[in-house]
């Protein structure tokens, strides 16, 4: 097969790129070793920044507006009380609760409707000749050897990216954390109208939502925690301890229908381009989950990438690709700071001192009682204006 752009990775980032390229009149082929079913059923975060929603809606993918929930703020819970941060008031912006799995389904449907060439469940994917005429070889679903020859290859193949290793020379930046997140789904009503990010002496907890009857929650745990060791009783005891307080907040509980431990790290690889191979999303950078920046950052990459690819492939502006790494990384490092900052403000470490605890509380008091403090959080959470 011959195409303009071969996209390795058919998650939301790869599909959004293929969709935007299609709207710009550029054909692409999307490959993924995972099946549609595997991607559809992998729980990921649920918050879209203002401009991520705008990108979806402006490109004709607008189910988020009817099936998503607009959230004008969050609660920071500390000292046994909820403190509301109003994004609308602080920066005139909001976010949308709309799970990443729904974004995937919407984009998959748009690409299928528009006749997109999507190949899920392929094996042995390998990228060749990134510095010349690039191609991807793989084994198709029927077990036959296959090849896609393209002008450009995009690695949108996630945090365990194989494309990443082809960038040479490369620089990597990594920060690890001495904890992880335990995530679970529960059949319960909502506990609050917006998300509740909790800091307690027992560690961090987050109460997010999915529907009227299913909620998504997380709590800080050890990196080597075994989900099987956590019974329903044990999970709720832990959640109650962390969210206890003296206001009228009530944690709503129910049967737990899914549980897992999430990886937790900050990572950036640069440059994001090697000849005719370009990286997007988690393939080039990972953020810890606090603040839900991962998908938003991937969509921001893809928006810039679609624009430079359009210039390079339809306007003969080969130099357009040169600007990609710097433009993408400008936002990446802001999001890296934001995710790191929210993480360290709300989590406990085993070696944390009394000083650290009181300093954390001082920061939270400042954030929730000052206009400048609320604006700092609100601007990062709803997403910096796109350039
Ligand atoms: C969700 C996940 C996050 O990491 C976050 O900060 C907010 C919400 C979620 O899964 O809903």
Automatic annotation (TrEMBL):
Keywords assigned: NAD, Oxidoreductase
Pfam families named among the record's database cross-references: FAD_binding_3 (PF01494)
Domain FAD-binding: 2-338
Annotated protein name in UniProt: 4-hydroxybenzoate 3-monooxygenase
Organism of this sequence: Nocardioides bruguierae
SUPFAM superfamilies: FAD-linked reductases, C-terminal domain, FAD/NAD(P)-binding domain
An example Gene Ontology molecular-function term: oxidoreductase activity
